[in-house]
Write a structure and sequence with these properties.
- The protein is built from twelve helices and 17 strands.
- With 442 residues, it is α/β, with parallel strands linked by helices.
- It folds into two domains: 171 residues, Immunoglobulins (Immunoglobulin-like), CATH 2.60.40.10; 251 residues, Rossmann fold (3-Layer(aba) Sandwich).
- The strands form three sheets. An eight-stranded mixed beta sheet has the order 10-11-13-12-14-15-16-17, sandwiched between helices. Strands 3, 6, 7, 8 and 9 form a five-stranded antiparallel beta sheet that branches.
- β16, α11 and β17 form a beta-alpha-beta unit.
- α6 packs parallel to α12 and α10 runs parallel beside α11.
- The longest helix is centred in the C-terminal third of the chain and has 18 residues.
- It is globular, with a radius of gyration of 25 Å.
Length: 442
């Protein structure tokens, strides 16, 4: 997966080619500019020395900006094996569309096998990215299939995601895997790793037969129970997309173990709900039947099965994207049952096509006119989530800010976090420990 591609062109060719064309790229990166000067000066070992540095330090190359402690320069690189025609950075940098925006395209340093692209980032940025190599022409069949064939993780990045040992790592379809760009001031996250001294809770799979769900019935759930004898007033955490995102992409059970052992949260039972396949879009966009499943079937089942007594103040809904949307919607409909919400990159920009009001940010307007309640909200959103993608120009980032402002103006308790990241699990695993602390803590 992370193999280093051989450079097939003889190094001597660099001197011959570059002697006729002086440097003109004017790269932002001091390291690239220095490499360009050295190659032009005939230092044939300069390119190999550059790659040796990258291979030991990892990609992207991070450089400080003089006089600016808040920003760093990150340079993404690709090592050409001799057949590279184009390289595109698949990440939403400054709202750029990777397929159409020149700001996403790496350029080749003349006469070398070095392709590069530099961007400035906040020093604490962290996000998922891929490289798109030799993207076929748009007329070469399905655009989505062509894009998938060209996508791959960065072979020089030292932080693949998922890791090769992860169940979600796909060795057959590389486009499913990515790499993490982590700037030097991104905070450490000790809650993600299993600690040998921390007791682990148990996870049990079950199936719930539903009278209201029309798809994926019976519904698969996984129930996490913490260590130790059950205490009074346990929390109940209901997590959507529990079959993939919050079990594998984000080690939620491990985070719960670590937070509980550190005294950051109270004892918590967690139910991971599977929302895969076609059921996801149907159930998570303002679905009253799904809310009824939660209140009338899932909640009574887990209370009886695990002798759990909870009230709204100890019942938390959690999800990302559409999972965040349905979490907030369920709390709007049943604040007497669900007293706390964790919405990670909640898709609050969406319209409700089943309502006469079919404008973007439908949920924001519903909260504006709903009776007040005591529901507590945690929102986190990435500053890179600022592209419209339909919704009449409304962005996910703006919709989260609008809902935050509306709820605060109406007197709701809101905990709001923005990070320089994108709509991906690298973002959500970074912010989830804080979200769980503020909703499940004392």
């Amino acid at each position: 997966m992370r193999r280093h591609l051989p450079f097939l062109t003889p190094a001597l060719l660099f001197v011959t080619v570059i002697a006729a064309q002086p440097p003109d790229a004017n790269p932002d990166s001091p390291a690239i500019a220095r490499l360009e000067r050295n190659v032009f000066a005939g230092q044939t070992a300069a390119v190999q020395e550059f790659w040796s540095t990258i291979e030991s330090q990892g990609s992207p190359l991070i450089e400080n900006i003089p006089g600016d402690s808040q920003t760093v320069l990150a340079t993404f690189v690709w090592k050409d094996s001799g057949d590279t025609k184009s390289v595109i950075l698949n990440a939403r940098i400054d709202s750029a569309d990777p397929l159409s925006d020149h700001r996403s395209r790496l350029q080749q340093l003349a006469g070398t096998n070095v392709w590069y692209l530099s961007h400035r980032f906040p020093a604490d940025a962290e996000f998922l990215y891929q490289l798109m190599v030799n993207l076929p022409p748009s007329n070469s069949g399905s655009p989505a299939a062509a894009m998938q064939r060209s996508l791959r993780p960065d072979p020089l990045n030292l932080s693949p995601y998922p890791a090769k040992s992860d169940p979600l790592f796909d060795p057959v379809q590389p486009w499913r895997n990515g790499s993490v760009a982590r700037m030097p001031a991104a905070p450490d996250n000790p809650w993600l790793a299993r600690q040998p001294t921390v007791p682990t809770g148990e996870l049990h799979e079950a199936a719930i037969k539903s009278s209201v769900l029309t798809m994926a019935n019976p519904r698969t759930v996984w129930v996490y129970t913490p260590t130790g004898p059950p205490l009074r007033n346990q929390n109940l955490l209901i997590v959507f997309d529990g079959g993939t995102t919050y079990q594998y992409r984000i080690p939620t059970a491990t985070i719960l173990d670590n937070l509980y052992a550190a005294g950051k949260i109270d004892q918590t039972v967690a139910v991971f709900v599977d929302n895969g396949g076609e059921a996801r879009a149907l159930e998570m966009t303002f679905s009253d039947p799904f809310v009824k499943f939660l209140t009338d079937e899932l909640l009574p089942w887990v209370q009886e099965k695990y002798a759990l007594k909870t009230d709204a103040a100890h019942t938390v809904l959690c999800g990302d994207s559409l999972g965040g949307l349905i979490s907030a919607y369920a709390a709007l409909r049943r604040p007497d049952v669900f007293g706390k919400v964790i919405a990670q990159s909640g898709s609050f920009q969406f319209k409700n096509l089943n309502d006469v009001d079919r404008q973007p940010e439908w949920l924001v307007r519903q909260f504006a006119k709903a009776p007040e309640s005591s529901v507590f909200f945690h929102f986190d959103v990435g500053q890179m989530e600022d592209r419209p993608e339909g919704n009449d120009g409304t962005t996910l980032l703006d919709a989260n800010r609008h809902l935050r402002d509306l709820l605060k103006a109406r007197g709701y308790a809101v905990h709001y976090v923005e990070v320089y990241s994108d709509h991906d699990p690298v973002h959500w695993r970074r912010t989830l420990p804080e979200a769980l602390t503020v909703t499940l803590g004392h």
